[in-house]
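Problem statement: downstream parser choked on a complex file, so we are re-checking the raw output for the nickel (II) ion run. The parser issue turned out to be on our end (a line-ending mismatch), but while we're here, posting the original submission so the record is complete.
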Amino acid sequence: MALRSTKQAATKIIDTTGNLVLSPPYGGFGFYHNHGPRTERKVALTFDDGPNKPSTEMLLDTLGELGVPATFFCLGIQAQFHPDLITRIDTEGHVIGNHSMRHARKDTLMLRGGQHIDECADVLAQLLGRRPRLYRPPWGWLTPWEGSRLIQRGYAIIGWDVYTLDWKLPEVDGRVLADGMYRDTKPGSIILLHDSNGIRPESQKVQMTHAVRHLVPRLQAEGYTFVTVPELLNMPAYIPLL
Ligand code: NI
């Protein structure tokens, strides 16, 4: 038991340090786009770790009803499980970005490598007919060498400046999540949410979808427009396949 608690304490220190040094808004070593221009009331919703069922389906229904586009940072492994959802996200006018093959923190911390980036790119390119240009590192952990790997491959590296606890289980109430995001949103904000939960795939993300329903009309009432990340940052979303 003592060994276990020591191990847990060590993991906590590593996580806390990693989040402080490597994650937005502090980390990134200059590689990250954490928000768009602060001069216009445009914001981008982003959803990580999917696609999954039924969470992504429920979210897509909601976004369709609200009439707002979003950006999905998909895992290669989830895209392999649910190729129909990759097609649906794309045809419904949302943008797809790369979130690595398996969400393995170790891959992104290695000095050499990059397979986790390329494997996911290949899966998505096969389904989309073009390669996503946006990349968001798992956990937001970005080392200088991972940043260089991504730039060499032509990626734009996307962080966030609005963050909430939608990944917690049991799920935090949607109104509470929406209140926090509403408070933190500024012109140009990139809002981070999750349409899947890798640890507990049975999570339906019901409260996260409720939060989106609450948040979108409140921000629209204040003159905010919802756009995709490439629109917010005025950059191409995809690279054509050769
Ligand atoms: Ni993630």
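For whoever reads this later: The radius of gyration is 17 Å.
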